[in-house]
């Protein structure tokens, strides 16, 4: 770990030690702060100490002032502005036939540099499929997977194994939501219909190795931030829950999208330019909130 503090410029304010989540910055007799060698292994590379230092005196791993540690603007959106962004976010499933430039998708990816993470900043991977030809090629594979799921759910033994091996909420979703739609041929690819990827021009897939700590949480945080960033760029998105199960069970789909075999796909986001313009937002008030006080 390249954790150091420049004693010549350090003001001895102690802000770094106070903000460190791992408590690995210690004050010694002269009043200066330093990283004890035996504690450096507990650094989680959050960069908090560098971000708060008033004299840019700290070096943590490969972070650099002016490159990865950047000065903050004094302008931040107020509550009203932030809520307005949330109001404009809708699950968009109708897109114009227009390719999203790679540099616009890159802006979405760039926004994830500022997301909070659980333990490791690179606990998950991102695959961008911004090629309609490849997405169209995947549709029959997705459709075939869900036809198989229908057979599995109608077979007593495989249905029992699915129920036993999945979370109760997942099984309920399959039984009460997915299965009726599959039986209604909702996910059949015919006559130009596409109720899986919704004819979106771009798909962003979030995936990770099973051993990576807190990768589930990190993927969902990234998916949420990506969807909000897309709104600010004039794009529409929808989280597609149909994608991860099929990708995780289909070697053909994993190969098509170049997902490492050992990786688990957690979430997926379709992205494109909205075909329809909403006139209103939808407020779903939360009634199941409990306040606990003394």
State the gist of this model.
This protein has 294 residues and is of the alpha+beta class.
What can you tell me about this protein's structure?
With 294 residues, this protein is α+β, with helices and mostly antiparallel strands. It folds into 2 domains: 4-59, Alpha-Beta Plaits; 75-280, 3-Layer(aba) Sandwich (NADH Oxidase). 37% of the residues lie in helices and 12% in strands. The protein is built from 10 helices and 8 strands. The protein has helices at 15-19, 48-52, 79-88, 102-111, 132-154, 156-165, 168-183, 215-232, 243-249, 251-256, and strands at 4-5, 26-27, 33-34, 58-59, 125-129, 202-209, 236-239, 263-272. The strands form 3 sheets. It has a 4-stranded antiparallel β-sheet, sandwiched between helices. Strands 1-4 form a two-stranded antiparallel sheet. Strands 2-3 form a two-stranded antiparallel ribbon. Strand 2 (26-27) and strand 3 (33-34) form a beta hairpin. The chain is elongated. The model has no long low-confidence stretch (mean pLDDT 94).
SSE diagram, text form:
Blueprint lengths: L3 E2 L9 H5 L6 E2 L5 E2 L13 H5 L5 E2 L19 H10 L13 H10 L13 E5 L2 H23 L1 H10 L2 H16 L18 E8 L5 H18 L3 E4 L3 H7 L1 H6 L6 E10 L22
Antiparallel strand pairs: 1-4, 2-3, 5-6, 6-8, 7-8
Helix pairs in contact: 4-8, 5-7, 5-9
């Amino acid at each position: 770990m390249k954790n150091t503090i420049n004693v010549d410029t350090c003001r001895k304010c102690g802000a770094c030690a106070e903000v460190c989540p791992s408590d690995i910055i210690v004050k010694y007799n002269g009043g200066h702060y330093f990283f004890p060698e035996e504690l450096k292994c507990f650094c989680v590379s959050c960069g908090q100490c560098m971000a708060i230092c008033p004299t840019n005196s700290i070096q943590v791993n490969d972070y650099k002032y002016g490159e990865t540690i950047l000065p903050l603007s004094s302008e931040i959106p107020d509550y009203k502005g932030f809520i307005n962004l949330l109001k404009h976010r809708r699950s968009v499933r109708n897109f114009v036939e227009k390719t999203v430039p790679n540099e616009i998708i890159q802006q979405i990816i760039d926004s994830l540099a500022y997301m909070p993470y659980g333990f490791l900043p690179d606990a998950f991977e991102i695959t961008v499929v911004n090629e309609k030809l490849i997405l169209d090629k995947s549709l029959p594979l997705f459709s075939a997977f869900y036809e198989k799921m229908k057979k599995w759910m109608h077979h007593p033994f495989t249905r029992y194994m699915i129920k036993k091996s999945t979370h109760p909420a997942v099984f309920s979703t399959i039984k009460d939501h997915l299965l009726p739609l599959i039986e209604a041929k909702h996910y059949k690819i015919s006559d130009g219909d596409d109720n899986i990827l919704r004819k979106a021009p771009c798909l962003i897939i979030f995936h990770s190795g099973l051993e990576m700590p807190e990768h589930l949480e990190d993927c969902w945080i990234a998916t949420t931030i990506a969807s909000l960033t897309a709104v600010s760029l004039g794009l529409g998105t929808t989280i597609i829950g149909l994608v991860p199960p099929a990708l995780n069970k289909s070697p053909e789909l994993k190969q098509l999208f170049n997902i490492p075999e050992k990786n688990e796909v957690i979430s997926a986001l379709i992205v494109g330019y909205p075909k329809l313009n909403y006139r209103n937002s939808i407020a779903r008030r939360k009634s199941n909130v409990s306040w606990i006080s003394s």
